[in-house]
Sequence to fold (472 residues):
Amino acid sequence: MPRSRPWIAYRDLSHALGDIIHLHVLGQHIVVLGSAQAIYDYLEKRSANTSDRVQSPMVELSGASLNIAFMPYGQWWRRHRRSFWQYFHREAAEGYKTTQQSAAHIFLQELCERPSDLREVIRLNFTAVIMKIGYDIAVQSKDDAYLKIAKDALEGPVEGMVPGRFLVDFLPFLRHIPPWFPFAASQRLWVKWQAAGDRLKNTPFKEVKAKLASGETTQSIVANSLERLSKMGMSSPEEEEIVKNVGAMAFEAGTDTVLSTMLSVFSGMSLHPEVLAKAHAELDEVVGPHRLPDFSDKDSLVYVNAVIKEAMRWHLVLPLGVPHATVADDEFRGYFIPAGTMVIPNTWACMHDPEVYEDPDVFRPERFIRNGKLDRTVQDPMAFIFGYGRRICPGRYFAEAAVFITVACALHVFDITVPLGEDGVPIEVKQGHTDGLISYPEDVRCTIKPRSATAEALIRSHATAARQALNG
Ligand code: HEM
Fold:
């Protein structure tokens, strides 16, 4: 098992051996699908048999048992997915756009004030949105306790849920070694991760329950779900568990994926001034200097949409998706695939296929545009990066809207350039992506400044109203 950037090693293996590779690692069958066709044929068309997940002890040990993404295919998963979907399907996601827009306006002001804190400002922005819609809890500053709870809870799933990273995946008895044992560093990590997962699941949930018990009016996914259960006389510890998990899942699956996407956009912009100049020109023409972009501008902002597609293609948030697994013995293109085989889609390889995208490592939004419109004949990264079949990301409409409004607003008002040292000389940025289930651009240092005095005034004039709208 390649430990670093496995998506590149798998791509190279696919070139040598074909687009279906079989690995057998300590008793676990693993199939890596290396082309768009193989992924479509197996994970989309044969989704009824390829929507399971291999159950690793790491799900529980990394504090991720609450997350639908790691649940086995079956009734428990289905009940969670149904419950989650009713709040995030296409029309439901429309209902969050006002909140997303307010959060984007606050984001601009935060970034204006702390431009060197890009990662933390983005995290604050998306945590605030999820806390608002999930629990009706206001997260307003970088010192908010919920920001730490969310950040701590993500460490386990991001670092622990990488197939093969921990030996316990293959030697399950290792989980029983007590954390105080010498050399039990992993075991100590697991205790920390599980406690962090429990805090994420229980702390905001208890706050909502207390509000409801005291008769306070509160509107959120968790509050509405609890009230509905109560009205229908269906409250039970099991139903409440699902509500808890749905709230926490929006967090766990939704914050760092969007964070990584945003970092990729900023990184692409700082390294490609010619791209930012074109985005600025389009925003000046469509939106003009006296307002901020909104969702009604989306179709007219062709170049900005292409920038987002290119950022998502260039840097894959989940380069190997989330591995699926087969439910029953199967046959695919003449190969026997036993039940319980882990099926890894090499989404990164599809997005970096030179036959489909010329010079795939180059950041070039123009590849998605023809005659001034988005070119529908070019393979759309959105059909890949959110996964496949019955497991396709149920937060995709919400995620797309969040990324669009935040990127459009940020590009409208900021200049984003390479980082400068204290002597004013540009610092060379290390281009690369981290390992882990979620991958991040490695070095996102850049210089962020308002484009003009008018842009700065625009940022400040919108922030107060946005704070009022978001947090009351
Ligand atoms: C740009 C941002 C995002 C990307 C790239 C992304 C990508 C993915 C991918 C690749 C999967 C696995 C699909 C598969 O198994 O084939 C997934 C699953 C999931 N995502 Fe997202 N996601 C994003 C944002 C979000 C957001 C904002 C939410 C919630 C509000 C969310 C909720 C989920 C959930 C609950 C699952 C588990 C689905 C299941 O296993 O049935 N995601 N996502």
